[in-house]
Specification:
Elements (H helix, E strand, L loop, with lengths): L6 E5 L5 H16 L3 E5 L12 E3 L4 H4 L2 E6 L1 H11 L6 E5 L14 H9 L4 E14 L5 E5 L2 E6 L6 E7 L2 E8 L1 E6 L6 H4 L11 E7 L9 E4 L4 E5 L7 E5 L2 E6 L3 E16 L5 H9 L13
Parallel strand pairs: 1-2, 1-4, 2-3, 4-5
Antiparallel strand pairs: 6-7, 6-17, 8-11, 8-15, 9-10, 9-14, 11-12, 12-13, 14-17, 15-16
């Protein structure tokens, strides 16, 4: 039987009026059901009901048994960091653009909570990537990424040269703007715009997609999730690279540093309504099967 929820944290970028309005509306609905609602004490939202608990944003996950992300996929990635190590599921209400992770329409929030709070939902467990940036003589920096780890050139106008190794075996030297190393979840994010394949989230796989490669033969590749990936600067390179994880800066990759990406021990659980269809989501977000002239679905 699915677990009940009684303490629900709401997160979102309330500078966007649409997000703020939806957050206030959801908070009123949940408080009306007698549930505890938690929000970041540093945000101001008009129309919140009485009794909303305000906490430092870093402590929201500690006090909740469900986190609701209101916004785009970036908000869901932020919410995932609050849930790491706590086993708290995430539910996404889409107030962004594509919304591969935040798949609930604002018009469907009441019906969604009717179902979720009654235990009628499906769980969707997603793999994460553990990125570690290490140099001799200094403490390593690490981050768990739900979507991707991106290595990009530091100086504009100059190509960066990177080596990739998988399981201790040399793979290739990549010249261009950098690399995207994405989980199956992240295959529909930055990696997709680099020509990478769409990987079903149930597959335990990782995609390595070059960013603007200098040679057309440098193509995206898919490897098993258990493959330990290392990225290094080519010894002759005079250009540094920056490493970001889900859009958060991890640090610089230079000649004395190695970036390692491997499976994370942590996983994230998303909630969907019964009958959730990943392929229907793809059709909707990527406009598959629609006529370029009318926008109508083709038979």
């Amino acid at each position: 039987m699915n677990q009940p929820f009684s303490r629900i944290a709401l997160v979102g970028k309330v500078e966007d009026a649409r997000v703020a309005d939806t957050m206030a509306s959801v908070a009123r609905d949940l408080r009306g059901r007698g549930l505890a609602v938690l929000i970041d004490r540093g945000v101001e939202v008009a129309g919140l009901p009485e009794g909303v608990e305000r906490r430092p944003v870093a402590e929201l996950g500690a006090g909740a048994d469900l986190i609701v992300a209101i916004g785009g996929d970036g908000t869901m990635l932020f919410a995932a960091q609050l849930a790491i190590g706590r086993g708290i599921p995430l539910l996404g209400i889409n107030r962004g653009r594509l919304g591969f992770l935040t798949d609930v329409s604002p018009d469907d929030t009441v019906a969604t909570f009717d179902a979720v709070l009654a235990g009628r939902y499906e769980t969707d467990v997603r793999d994460m990537l553990q990125a570690t940036l290490a140099a001799a003589g200094s403490a390593p920096a690490s981050y768990c990424a739900l979507n991707d780890v991106v290595v990009q050139r530091h100086e504009s106008g100059r190509m960066v040269e990177l080596e990739t190794w998988i399981g201790g075996r040399f793979v290739n030297t990549h010249g261009g703007d950098g690399l995207v190393i994405a989980s199956s979840t992240g295959s529909t994010a930055y990696a997709l715009s680099c020509g990478g394949p769409i990987i079903h989230p149930a597959l335990h796989a990782t995609v390595i997609a070059p960013i603007s490669p200098h040679t057309l033969s440098d193509r995206p590749i898919v490897v098993g999730r258990d493959g330990r990936i290392e990225v290094r600067l080519v010894a002759r390179s005079s250009t540094r690279a920056q490493v970001t994880c889900d859009g958060v800066m991890l640090g610089d990759l230079d000649l004395d540093t190695t970036l390692t990406i491997e499976p994370a021990a942590e996983r994230i659980t998303l909630l969907h309504l019964p009958g959730h269809d990943y392929f229907r989501l793809l059709r909707s977000k990527l406009h598959w099967g629609r006529s370029g002239r009318t926008g109508a679905a083709e038979s």
